[in-house]
């Protein structure tokens, strides 16, 4: 056991006490801040780029009054002819001009702009003119205000209601527009993304960790003083502690951020939207998603350790782990597809495949399209598959790290299997 702890401490110390770990912890936070900042700047730019100076052509006083009252974002020039407006547009003194065509029975307009002009939003102008024209039409038809309001409110809305039946036989109606549904989907997406991020990060780390020692040609010396299984488990536990350290760092940063935000009364602002209630309703998605995440990370890191033990140099690691990276990517995209179609056969089957379960099942749980029986089955299947992956990685670890070959994954494993078989027969 002391030898295992030596391996664990060495792996843990080497990975945590490094700049790469520091950037690995802060990287997602920095990326989130950058994305948020870019989104804010884009929103600000869109607000400024969708408003400008517009010339009104052929608009009578009544129409001008309607447009000026309905659009407060744009500045309007009212005394230009169409030729003058076109000239002003070419000289970039205005951002576009609106030519109004009005008869007793119709009202329309054409907005002209240059490709390089601001992308003026004419939606508010269109809405104001539509309301004005509707009122005029109602007046011509002799409709009173009550009749006009009845026509305006005669829209048909269809809301999708999900009938959820509990194990006790009770049926609950849930609207598809319920904020709880949206929050649960958001939590499922967050769980799936975090699993994908951790898998992509630690698949590379564990495979590099094993391949580095094998590439230095010292595995024979190491395995002469410690068993192969102890060495492999020590590395896996060490990487597991690195993952826990990263999670702990995020927990600490979360509470520090919470203390800071409390000074800004931000939580009081969120309480207006019942954020705490909706997150509480998503507790099962978060809890079950965490279990699936742990199992998924263990599965992928076990396979990564197995693949890392097959390569002869660290330069070949990325090539060797490419299949598992694409497998995780496929699972992630199936999960995104599950967000919009949780009852699709691909999604239902994928949620029971251990390599895809951590990405897909949280979305099915969030949509409540999976029963407790399926959840239990997926847990059992995933745990069995995880144990098999660990077992295969451990029993082949010794023969894998003692085989040096550049013949590719299949040929290298064949040689490793032959070595393992001969050692087993000899013993």
Automatic annotation (TrEMBL):
The ABC-2 type transporter transmembrane domain covers 19-395
Any one Gene Ontology MF annotation carried by this entry is: ABC-type transporter activity
Superkingdom is Bacteria
Where is it located? Cell membrane
Membrane topology term reads: Multi-pass membrane protein
One Pfam family from the record: ABC2_membrane_3
Q: Give the principal location in a single coarse category.
A: membrane
Residues spanning the membrane: 21-43, 187-211, 232-261, 285-308, 320-338, 375-397
The record's annotation in InterPro entries points to:
ABC-2_transporter_component, ABC2_TM
Q: Which keywords does UniProt give here?
A: Cell membrane, Membrane, Transmembrane, Transmembrane helix
Tell me which GO cellular component terms the UniProt record holds.
plasma membrane
What name does the UniProt record give this protein?
A: ABC transporter permease
Species of provenance: Fundicoccus ignavus
Q: What is the lineage of its organism?
A: Bacteria, Bacillati, Bacillota, Bacilli, Lactobacillales
């Amino acid at each position: 056991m002391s030898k295992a702890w030596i391996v664990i401490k060495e792996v843990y110390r080497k990975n945590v006490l490094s700049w790469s770990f520091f950037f690995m912890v802060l990287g997602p936070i920095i990326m989130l801040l950058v994305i948020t900042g870019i989104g804010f700047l884009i929103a600000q730019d869109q607000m400024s780029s969708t408003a400008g100076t517009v010339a009104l052509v052929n608009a009578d006083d009544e129409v001008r009054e309607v447009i000026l009252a309905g659009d407060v974002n744009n500045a309007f020039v009212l005394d230009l002819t169409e030729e003058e407006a076109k000239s002003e547009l070419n000289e970039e003194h205005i951002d576009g001009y609106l030519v109004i065509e009005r008869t007793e029975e119709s009202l329309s307009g054409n907005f002209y702009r240059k490709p390089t002009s601001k992308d003026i939003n004419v939606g508010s102008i269109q809405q104001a003119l539509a309301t004005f024209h509707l009122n005029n039409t109602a007046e011509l038809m002799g409709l009173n205000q009550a009749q006009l309001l009845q026509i305006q409110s005669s829209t048909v809305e269809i809301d999708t209601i999900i009938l959820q039946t509990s194990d006790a036989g009770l049926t609950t109606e849930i609207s598809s527009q319920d904020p709880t549904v949206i929050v649960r989907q958001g939590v499922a997406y967050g769980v799936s993304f975090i699993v994908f991020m951790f898998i992509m990060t630690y698949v590379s780390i564990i495979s590099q960790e094993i391949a580095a020692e094998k590439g230095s040609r010292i595995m024979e010396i190491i395995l002469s003083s410690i068993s192969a299984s102890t060495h492999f488990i020590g590395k896996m536990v060490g990487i597991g502690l690195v993952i826990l350290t990263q999670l702990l760092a995020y927990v600490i940063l979360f509470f520090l951020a919470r203390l800071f935000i409390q000074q800004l009364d931000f939580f009081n602002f969120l309480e207006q939207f019942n954020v705490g209630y909706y997150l509480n309703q998503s507790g099962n998605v978060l809890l079950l998603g965490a279990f699936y995440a742990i199992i998924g990370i263990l599965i992928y890191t076990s396979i990564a350790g197995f693949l890392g033990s097959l390569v002869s140099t660290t330069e070949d690691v990325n090539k060797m782990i490419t299949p598992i990276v694409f497998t995780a990517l496929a699972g992630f995209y199936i999960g995104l597809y599950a967000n919009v179609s949780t009852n699709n056969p691909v999604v239902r089957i994928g949620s029971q495949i251990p390599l895809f379960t951590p990405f897909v099942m949280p979305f099915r749980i969030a949509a409540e399209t999976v029963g407790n029986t399926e959840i239990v089955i997926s847990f059992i299947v995933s745990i069995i598959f995880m144990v098999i992956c660990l077992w295969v990685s451990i029993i082949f670890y010794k023969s894998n790290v003692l085989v040096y070959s550049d013949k590719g994954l299949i040929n290298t494993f064949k040689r490793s299997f032959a070595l393992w078989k001969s050692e087993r027969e000899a013993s």
